[in-house]
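Cross-posted from the bioinformatics board.
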Amino acid sequence: MLEIITKFGPTLLEAMGKTLTMAFYSLIFASIIGLFFGVLAVVRNKVCNVIAQIFVDIIRGVPMIVLAYFVFFGIPYACKNIIGFNLTLSALEAGIICLSLNCGAYMAEIIRGGIQSVPKGQMEAARSLGLPYLTSMRKIILPQAIRTMIPSIINQFIITLKDTSILSIIGFPELVNSAKGVVALTFKSFQVWAIVGIMYLIVITILSKLAKVLERRLSYDRK
Amino acid sequence: MIANDNIKISVKSLYKDFGKTNVLNGISLDVYEGEVVCIIGPSGGGKSTFLRCLNCLEDPTSGNIYFDGVDIADVTVDINIHRQKIGMVFQQFNLFPHKTVLENIMLAPVDRKLLDKETARVRALELLKRVGIEEKANDYPHSLSGGQQQRVAIARALAMNPDIMLFDEPTSALDPEMVGEVLAVMKELAQQGMTMVIVTHEMGFARDVADRVLLIADGVIAEEGTPKEIFDNPQNKRTQDFLAAVL
């Protein structure tokens, strides 16, 4: 075990870095996508609501591994054969697109639920003062909604961080993919996968603790 | 109709349906500058819906609402500009829980660029003094009593310097011992000449402060008159029944 750590530790750490990079960009884009579709789902406009619903239904209804193959192989193929345009996506780019869409759809649902959990009177009070809809949303509704959303959002972030491992199938050298390589070289499955498991565990535990702190900080009921 | 400059808000045959339920069945009303109109009536009769139509929190199904010479019931009108001049106070206060009392009051005037931050702060403190709770300026709403919260809500509405104030059962969610402090603030406001439309169950207050009392039932104005006429000598059967039940 010690031998593996000393010999392949740097490789695995580097791969963890790639995993975190992919997760980091995906979470940023997913938050933007989630906010956009989450708000689209609650505005008083049937067309917007339906668009948001369709997006969520499609992404939620397709396994991420299928989405990954579709984005990485399917879309460049279609571009080349139908449009005649050569699109090359790196594994990292394709991975970020997949994770952003996937996580974004779940975030949209979390944000929709969070917004709807704020009492109606808050929006009415803001509008009655002459604030426009989006200003009311930004200054009054979302700051309150975010407090109820934090646990679910962190949960989703953790799921997305773990889902980066699925992207090993399109060849991105994140942690699982690198670990496979180490296993192939050493034949020490037990030790390698135990190390990898512990690495995920450490990162995710830190993330959960941060979430708890954040949750406490944002609570206005504290005395 | 009389084109009178003194009419603050003029409602012409207002109808409101929720699906198949007709809540308002043709209400017309002129509210004059400085007038205090109290609306009473049975629950589900349409009083609150009517009040909420006045600043288009509910879009009327048909009818006109003239405010500042503009029909604000017209959906192409930018309602946000007109709402700034129509203050509203809610039954449930609806203070913003993530903002301090002071921030609650300053938010809209600053955001709408009516006042700069410093002026807004001074004005907010003035208003808090007026409603008697300047010492709570930096507290969060949840640490205030219901009566205090409602007074903050009144101050928040006044911060926009409105031409008219709408009150939607402002004391109905309060503990009995706090009703008085809120009514006192409203009474003072009335005496200072604010135009007010008040949906209320406080008959004593209506009798005392109103220039005109309307009884809305089944989506129409069943009867209107001075407090004396309505309370001492009601003509309409529905007014008589209602007053017999509540007094």
